[in-house]
Structure formats: C-alpha cells, structure tokens
Write a structure and sequence with these properties.
single chain; alpha/beta; six-stranded mixed beta sheet; 15 strands; elongated
Amino acid sequence: VMRGWKLSVGGLLLGMHILGCGKDVPSGAPPAASQPGIADRPVIAFVAAAPNDPLWPVLKTSAELHLQQWDAFEVRFLVPEKDEPQSQADLLAALSEPRLRGLCIHIRDAAAVQKQLERLQQSGVSIVSMIQPAPTNCRVAHVGLDESAIGRALADATADLLGKHGTIMLIHAGSDHPAFGLRLMGMRERLRIHRQLEALALIDCQADPQVALAAIQDRSQRYPRLSAWVALDDWPLRGLTSDNPLPPNTRLITFGGLPHQWPLLRSGVLPVLVAADYGQLGGKALQFCENAIRNTNPQRLPDHYIAPLRTLRPEDLDAYERDWRTWAGQGQ
C-alpha cells in the first residue's frame, strides 16, 4: 500500500488515520515511490469531517469509483483523530507534502478550519468543499446540498403529513448561519404558502444538540396536543442518550437520511424525513479538484454539484437503505 504522510504539529507526530491511497498496489509490488511516475504525481488530500462521520464511507467510495476511471493524481484519504473541530484543523495544519495540489474536504466546523484553508489556498492548493461550503474566496468548487431547498422540502413534507391543519414548533439555528440560515429562509417561504400550518414557536438552538433536545422536553409537557416538531437539522437526535430520551409520543420531522435515523423512521418517531442522494458527492468533488489543478482558467469550469433531495416515509426506507449500501460500497 502506498505510504502515508508523516505529519507533525508542534514537533509531534499527528495521530490521524490514513485510510489508503487512490489506488491499491498489488501484494508483492515494489513500494509506491519506486514505481515509475508515482513519485511525480500531484497529490490530492481527501479529508473526512470526523472519525465516525456516517457520510465518510459514501464520500470515500464515490471518490474511489472515480479513481477507477482516472488515476493521474495520487489521492490520500485522511481522517481526523478526534471527533472535534480542532482535530480537523490540526490535520490541515500538518499537511506539508510538497506535491500537494488539491484538497477535497468535508468541513466539520468552518470557523475552526478557515485559517488553514486560507493558508493552503494561498500556497496554490485547489480546494473543493463537500457538504458544508468553504468560504468562496478559499474554494474552487463545492459539492453538497441546496440549503434553502431543504427548508422548503421540510415545510412541504410537514404540510403533506399534517393535512388540513396542524400545529408545529420549529427548531432552527438562526438566520445568520451560512447553511442553516438558508434552510430557515426556505422554511419561512413555504410556511407563507402552507397557511394550514400554525407555527406556535420558533426556537433558536444555535445548532446545539442539548439545547434542541431540552426545548422539546420542556415544551412537550406544556403542549401535549402539538402536531409535530420540525428541526432544520437533526440536532435533537444527536443529544439523545438512554438517560435523556425524547418525550413519549414525540413526532419529529427533520433532515438527513443517515443510518442512525432509520430506526426512528421505522418506529414513527420520525413520521417523514427529508434526505438526499449522497452517492455522487465524493466523485464530483474529486473531478472538480482535478479539473482545477489541470486548468489554467478555472472560472470556465463547473464549480458546484447539488445532490437531489428525497422525502422518505417508513415505506420508502427499504429502497433508500439499498441505495445507501451501494453508495457506501457495501453491496446488496
């Protein structure tokens, strides 16, 4: 297997996971650096958001499928050591490979990595953000989601579920957030159309899972006839523990389609869920990054790809699970 990078931060070896290179080397083959042309290839770092990020297998598999068709670059799949924003920033700070020409990154927290992204961009690295957008001055392209469309889809799904009349409480993360603010804008746009939906409260959880879950726990007792909760992201689910559950009979509508949400969709706690077709994101990111490295005029190249949205009810889950297994390279 191709050798990973020796990365140091403050004189110490950074303990991150190197998950492999762009193409496997057969057993018994000479070391990667000794193979003709390998040592001269431009390098692209393909970086995960966190060690246990559920989207990582999907992003990585998509990129690997793209590499089967085009392997002029050496791609290194890198995962932060810890599930915290600073760990991803440390990983980026340690990238010192002289052949580094590209970076595809699923950003964990934009503020935590902005300084390192600016440093890499100024050094000539072409940056493509995945899911959460990097600042426009730091990136050559972005692959991800139409955030305002997510807000509209959540409102439409709620209206379809509740029918002629329903009361909801909406959990959001403020109008100024670069992604969730657009979701809130899309939701408000559709609520003006779906007048049968009565929003009793709009609660800013500041993207904090504990605050979101506490809001549901507190208000569910005071509003037992509430039709449903709507959360613009699945913050309440991230705060769940066996000692800190959702109140009985909670109905929550949110976004994701991620594996930890599937049992709640089957059980009816999530009666409807807005999801996305994530299967092409990694390959598109790698394609955009390669194009930017090759092309001297990247303004003429495509600079974004938006994953299609899907609305899931319990009866749709089996088909979605099959798609997910395919996206993640897990077969059928």
